[in-house]
Design brief:
The protein is of the alpha+beta class. The chain folds into two domains: 116 residues, D-amino Acid Aminotransferase, Chain A, domain 1, CATH 3.30.470.10; 152 residues, D-amino Acid Aminotransferase, Chain A, domain 2 (Alpha-Beta Barrel), CATH 3.20.10. Strands 7, 8, 9, 10, 11, 12, 13, 14 and 15 form a nine-stranded mixed sheet that branches. Strands 2-1-6-5-3-4 form a six-stranded antiparallel sheet. α5 crosses α7. It is globular and about 50 Å long.
């Protein structure tokens, strides 16, 4: 069942008007949320990022009323789609009304997709092989750090990676490592956890926040630090973080190889994340 502005529709029913501004101009945002045992994980962090992006895009809404409605509609979508174990939600918010580049209205509308997943929560996945996408860099913009409906750099990086027989690609910002197309990047150097700062145009990832939070609680050294490709390649371990998949080890960046079976901090953090996510009452963390 698809939730279109509070109306539950059967999958396959018409979803979007041709006047939809997200379809025509990329005028919108989205969030991908993980469901575990019927609970929506880290929902507060997702809604905080979404609302911050809506303000940046100058949508007009009453913040607490919107937040409360999204909580209700997300939970309603979980129930309507009978997601009792593992699942994924995609909340898409776009500017209502018509107009060309200049909108005639600024109120938000939404669409929620819901899917059951078969995999276990945040279990170790196959380590990734990465390449480096150099054809374009992530641009400077006030909305950097949000998940935009217009995602062309990440789409092109994904196409580039697949066409060169890699799993994903590193995107760069002013020559520095920013992220991969679908996740934030972490490096381990001498037991110290490093990740590019938000000022290097990476996504303000919800899972990135959890990893930093957990590492600090475990009294690990954590630093948000700009990384060149050469600095990243000298790391002892490299992994990426994503709300749906959790932590995923990297085994290759072009000619540089690692042996994830010998990683120590990555599996330690993955296990800590699993315990954290499975704890009672973590839906609104």
């Amino acid at each position: 069942m698809i939730n279109l502005n509070g109306h539950l529709l059967e999958e396959g029913a018409p979803e979007v008007s041709l006047l939809n501004r997200s379809f025509k101009y990329g005028d919108g945002l989205f969030e991908s949320l993980r469901v575990y045992e019927g609970r929506i994980l880290f929902m507060a962090d997702h809604l905080n990022r979404l609302i911050r992006g809506m303000h940046i895009l100058r949508m007009e809404f009453e913040e607490e009323t919107w937040r409360a409605r999204m909580r209700e509609e997300l939970r309603r979508s979980v129930q309507a789609n009978a997601i009792h174990a593992h699942g994924r939600l995609r909340l898409h918010v776009y500017r209502g009304g018509s107009g060309a580049y200049l909108p005639v209205a600024h109120h938000p509308l939404f669409l929620i997709e819901a899917y059951n997943l078969k995999d276990d929560l945040y279990q170790a996945a196959t380590p990734l092989r990465l390449t480096i996408y150099r054809e374009a860099m992530i641009p400077d913009a006030p909305w950097t750090g949000c998940k935009l409906a217009s995602a062309l750099p990440w789409v092109m990086a994904s196409i580039y990676a697949r066409s060169n027989l890699y799993d994903d690609a590193l995107l760069l910002y002013r020559g520095k490592v920013s992220e991969i197309s679908s996740a934030n990047v972490f490096a381990v150097q001498k037991r110290k956890l490093l990740t590019p700062p938000l000022s290097d145009a990476c996504l303000d990832g919800v899972m990135r926040r959890q990893v930093i939070r957990i590492a600090q609680q475990l009294q690990l050294q954590v630093e948000e630090k700009s990384l060149t490709i050469n600095q990243l390649l000298k790391s002892d371990e490299v992994f990426v973080s994503n709300t749906i998949r959790g932590l995923q080890a990297v085994r290759q960046i072009e000619k540089q190889m690692w042996e994830p079976d010998r990683y120590t901090l990555t599996p330690f953090l993955r296990n800590a994340l699993l315990q954290y996510a499975c704890a009672e009452g973590k839906e609104d963390v």
